Amino acid sequence: MSDISLTVNGKRVGGVTEDRTLLVHFLRENLGLTGTHVGCDTSQCGACVVHLDGKAVKSCTMLAVQASGSTIATIEGLADGAELHPVQAAFKEHHGLQCGFCTPGMIMTATDMIARHPEGLDEATVRAELEGNICRCTGYHNIVKAILAASETMSAKGKARQAA
């Protein structure tokens, strides 16, 4: 058993966990953050993507003790109160989900992708970077449209802030 301490969605949290506990299970079972999904247990599907120190990671690929001292962002931490994050809003507006199981991981992957490409994204880049996320329902067309729309919105907001 190990003591761990993290900052999750802006709040300091801690706990005792078995050394073999995966980060995804610690988030879900110890912290009650069930938006991070367990899909395949083999790191193939991307349903468990969270941000670790600002970078997208599959939380089923690392132990909770490895994340101790880090800052984690989950899908529950994206919205600002009742106001959806631009990526969440774009998924809603462009129907980027059906059953919704993959959606948290897709959104977390997309926010990381957009942050790494502040100049904007094109369809080929989005499709290439979604390779680690599986959706069995949508065919990806609306997911790609949603990410491109969010990228455009967020880069426009960034340009407006720079001009001000």
Can you give a write-up of this model?
The chain is α+β, with helices and mostly antiparallel strands and 164 residues long. The chain has 6 helices and 5 strands; from the N terminus they run E-E-H-E-E-H-E-H-H-H-H. Strands 2-1-5-3-4 form a 5-stranded mixed β-sheet, sandwiched between helices. A hairpin with a 2-residue loop joins strand 3 and strand 4. The longest helix has 23 residues.
Helix/strand class: alpha+beta
Low-confidence stretches: none
Please report the distance between the alpha carbons of the first and last residues: 51 Å
Q: What general outline do the C-alpha atoms trace?
A: globular
How many helix segments? Answer: 6
Helix content: 25-40%
Query: Strand-residue fraction?
Result: 15-25%
Strand order of the largest sheet: 2-1-5-3-4
Indicate the radius of gyration in whole angstroms: 16 Å
Largest sheet: 5 strands, mixed
Series of secondary-structure elements, N-terminal to C-terminal: EEHEEHEHHHH
Which keywords apply here?
164 residues, alpha+beta, five-stranded mixed sheet, 5 strands, globular
In a few lines, what is going on in this structure?
This protein is an alpha+beta fold and 164 residues long. Helix content is 39%, strand content 15%.
